[in-house]
């Protein structure tokens, strides 16, 4: 089941919407953004690897690629599948790597608004904080998982951090104010930490596009107090990064503020959508050195 054509409508819509693939693990119902999914396949033979992480089953060969297999039942604390015949591998791509998520069943694709997705409260989060959104469907709810965090728990090098042997040249960045809009708590903190190491010590930090837009809109009477630059993720509850970028760039008082999209979803197919909504730059996670260089080029004087 290939999903490469599922994004066509969304790419042209410019709406605050997304399509999610619904699936089950144990008794739980979950969703994953179609844009993260490359294909859905029947499980194939898994080659076990020695000393692997407890959430990894091993690796599979899919055409010419070797892909790790993550057992979501183990990640989320559910028992093994009771009906393995219906199991599926969801082949995903995020943070420039491919991963197969082993799930117990795949149901269908739903098109919803980001406004239907609420941030989980501390009590409802559970699953070792792997949940970043609660999707309100007509008859039930499902959970949107923090897939980047799940992968980072297994392979920390896939996260936002300075690569080994890399450093960021020191410049006086203390007078500049950034806005960071990122819903994943772990990625939000890592991004903030690395930017502080680079000298960007003054940042507004928001968990979704709606929170960020409410703050920006409150500055309409005094745009001089706006941040010097906005860094936004794409996938966020209530308002996604494309919609936030569009609102900023279509407002006469705010359109001069540079907006950088920093996301695991910056693919060739999606790049033109960011251009359409007016993004000044688009950088794929986890290229943090490239991100700092682009920020410098836009807001620092030579």
Automatic annotation (TrEMBL):
A single GO BP: phosphorelay signal transduction system
Gene3D superfamilies per record: 3.40.50.2300, CheA-289, Domain 4 (2.40.50.180), SH3 Domains (2.30.30.40)
Any Pfam family the entry gives: Response_reg
CheW-like domain boundaries: 17-156
Key word Phosphoprotein present: yes
Keywords carried by this UniProt record: Phosphoprotein
Stored InterPro entries: Chemotax_regulator_CheV (IPR024181), CheW-like_dom_sf (IPR036061), CheW-lke_dom (IPR002545), CheY-like_superfamily (IPR011006), Sig_transdc_resp-reg_receiver (IPR001789)
Domain annotation Response regulatory: ranges: 177-300
Sites of 4-aspartylphosphate modification: 233
This protein's name: Two-component system, chemotaxis family, response regulator CheV
């Amino acid at each position: 089941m290939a999903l490469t054509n599922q994004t066509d409508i969304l790419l042209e819509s410019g709406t605050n919407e997304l399509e999610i693939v619904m699936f089950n693990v144990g008794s739980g119902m979950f969703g994953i953004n179609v844009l993260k999914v490359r294909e859905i396949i029947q499980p194939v033979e898994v080659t076990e690897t020695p000393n692997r992480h407890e959430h990894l089953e091993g690796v599979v060969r899919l055409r010419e690629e070797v892909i790790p297999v993550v057992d979501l039942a183990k990640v989320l604390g559910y028992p093994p599948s009771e009906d393995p015949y219906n199991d599926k591998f969801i082949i995903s791509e995020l943070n420039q790597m491919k991963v197969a998520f082993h799930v117990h069943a795949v149901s269908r694709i739903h098109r919803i608004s980001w406004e239907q997705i609420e941030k989980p409260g501390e009590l409802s989060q559970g699953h070792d904080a792997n949940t970043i959104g609660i999707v309100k469907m007509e008859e039930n709810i499902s959970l949107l998982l923090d897939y980047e965090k799940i992968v980072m728990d297994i392979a920390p090098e896939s996260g936002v951090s300075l690569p080994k042997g890399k450093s960021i040249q020191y410049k006086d960045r203390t007078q500049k104010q950034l806005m960071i809009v990122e819903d994943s708590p772990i990625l939000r903190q890592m991004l903030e930490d690395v930017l502080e190491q680079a000298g960007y010590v003054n940042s507004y930090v928001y968990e979704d596009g709606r929170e960020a837009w409410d703050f920006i809109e409150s500055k309409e009477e005094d745009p001089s107090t706006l941040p010097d630059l906005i860094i936004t993720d794409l996938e966020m509850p209530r308002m996604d990064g494309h919609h936030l970028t569009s609102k900023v760039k279509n407002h006469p008082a705010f359109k001069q503020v540079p907006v950088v999209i920093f996301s695991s979803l910056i693919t060739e197919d999606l790049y033109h959508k960011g251009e359409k909504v007016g993004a000044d730059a688009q950088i794929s996670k986890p290229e943090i050195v490239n991100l700092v260089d682009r920020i410098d080029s836009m807001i620092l004087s030579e």
